[in-house]
From TrEMBL:
Stated name of the protein: BadF-type ATPase
Pfam families: BcrAD_BadFG
SUPFAM superfamilies noted in UniProt: Actin-like ATPase domain (SSF53067)
InterPro entries, per the entry: ATPase_BadF (IPR002731), ATPase_NBD (IPR043129), Euk-type_GlcNAc_Kinase (IPR052519)
Domain ATPase BadF/BadG/BcrA/BcrD type: 8-304
Amino acid sequence: MTDRVLAIDGGNSKTAVLLVDANGKVLAQVRGPGAPPQTVGMKRGLDVFEGLAREAAAQAGLSPDEPIATHTAAYLAGADLPREEEDLTRAITERGWSPSVVVGNDTFALLRSGTAAGVGVAVVCGAGINAVGVAADGRTHRFPALGPISGDWGGGGHLGEQALWLAVRAEDGRGRPTELLPALLQHYGESSILDVVEKLHFEEVRFDPHVLCPILFEVAAAGDAVAQTVVDRLIEEIVLLSTVSLRKLDLVNDAVDVVLGGGVMTGTGDTVLVPVREQVLRIAPAARVRVVDLPPVVGAALLGLDTIGAAPAAELRLRSAYDDHVPTSLNVAASG
């Protein structure tokens, strides 16, 4: 069988699958709904992954009775603890998509997508928030990323909840006046935020806090001090995740990459990036801090190519398919 990598980026809101050959050529790419096995259940989640993997195999012209790939590189939101990674590795291996399987948290894919060797620190702020650090000698630093019970703060859903919380308290007198109140009233088409709360309570209106997150940033950008406090708190959290990882791995004095990604990061431009960079550089002056919007599934594919021993030229070829997303400061040497 010609060496191929089946890369899976399993996020909370979507699943992306990429099939590439050992030379970095994209053979197929498909997208589907988010199906984190920890949320929807192992069988249902893997059924979604399998459907997309089989669709990719068909796009690539593979026979249904042959393995899809030599190696499966699955980097998934919610694969936060070693036990979860082990369970997922065993379950995916049983599906028979490839002889070898590696499962990891999606932050590793983000880090690899933004670096030439997967060394540095990556912070993802999308539906949730998480970070990982990897040193050149292989040492890693991670956070459990299980939400409030593991000390986490941030992510699009949490920020949206904060926006509603502040609007409610502004209307009932427990909080400071904020333009979040009229902004959310307009969003829901109501004249009172308490009417919104009642409809949410009785499930007459679907509560999707992620859609409120952009409103929070818009109101903050317009000069609202209350909304800005939430943005400032997010900036503080991203800086903490970055710098704690750098300190734990003794990288604060190194010229190391700090890669930021996820929908919240890529959707806010310099609003978050500029202050995060300034504050990280106070602690790690040689760090290179940037947002990377290369699709995370490409990072998963790069990790898969690393695993099968693909030549550096394969990385260049794969990245060239996404030229608009490649950071200008990222250098990958071609050889072989």
